[in-house]
Amino acid sequence: MTSTMEHRASAVRRSAGHEPRATIAAPSSRWTSTGTSRSRAVVTGTATALEPISLARVSQVAALQTRTDNKYLLTPEQFAELMDNVPWSTRVLEIDDRRVFSYESVYFDTEDLALFRAHRQRRRRRFKVRTRSYIDTGESMFEVKLKGYRDRTVKRRTNHEFERRGELTGSAQRFLHSVLRHEYDMSAPALVPSLTTEYRRATLVDPENATRLTCDVDLRCRDDNGGAAGPDLVLVESKSAGGRAPADQALKTMGIRPVSLSKYCIGTALVHPDVPANKWNRLLRHHFGWQPQRSLALAATEPA
Fold it and tell me: What's the rounded mean pLDDT across residues 239-252?
């Protein structure tokens, strides 16, 4: 069997003064010999092959708290091809000798999922509220993500207690109220924990172009009533000031277009099949094997 992390020399791309970049071939079977998903294997191989960059350096060159995000769902083969075409200046975030990190996000919404519905209806003033926790380092942040001018993403964040990452603490509530008052001139609604997502991420950074690529795999979503797993794909998010990063151009050349996808909204639809998710129906059906509650009910009445 071909090695999970098979390295091959790129015969296509060369850069003056550089040897050809070592690239990673996607595993040929759905699972590797160690039981790792194909998407995780190819992302881990890429992270291992690239030169590292520190978190402090990332904050200097590509913090991008106000930015344009483009999201893509890639097969392991498509991801490997993309890596053949990113700039030579691309580095991988490394912290304490780690390059692939475990993340957990707890999202907060109203009892009737008003924030989810605002995203589904593409309301001009819409936002997400969550804690984001870095499981490997035991740190948490409280974040508010808002849609700003021309649909740009604005993120405001503050420190949060790791042990209380599933709670909307008093300090988090005050921070949320301040952000919403400043950005939208509105008060914060009453929120409760709504969804937890878990995934693994490698962050690629191009300091010369001030862009970032986050590469997420092994997505799992859950609430108090159950959970669901995502497909064996790589969720790539290209983050740049203007939305035209080199990775976006490479993916366009590959014939791959951005998708409208939010982990919170997709996860909510997966664990609440009774909630309308019209905006994401095609994506959910094609990539996640999802059916709305009404379709499930109809299928149950059909003869075997």
Answer: 89
pLDDT in tens, 161-196: 999 999 999 999 999 999 999 999 999 999 999 999
Range of the domain at 54: 20-292
- Which residues have C-beta within 8 Å of that of residue 115, sequence separation ≥ 6? 108, 109, 126, 127, 128, 129, 191
Q: Quick check: 36 and 4 in contact, CB under 8 A?
A: yes
CA dihedral 84, 90, 94, 99 (to 10 degrees): -20
Mean pLDDT (the chain) is 85
Kindly give, in sequence order, each residue whose CB lies less than 8 Å from that of residue 236, ignoring residues fewer than 6 positions away: 71, 72, 73, 74, 79, 82, 213, 214, 215, 216, 247, 251
- Whether 171 is covered by a domain: the verdict is yes
Q: What domain count does the chain have? A: 1
Establish if 288 belongs to a structural domain: yes
Print burial letters for 172-185: b (CB count within 10 Å at least 16), e (below 16): bbebbeebbeebee
CATH of the domain at 262: 2.40.320.10
Bridge partner residues of 193 (DSSP): 108
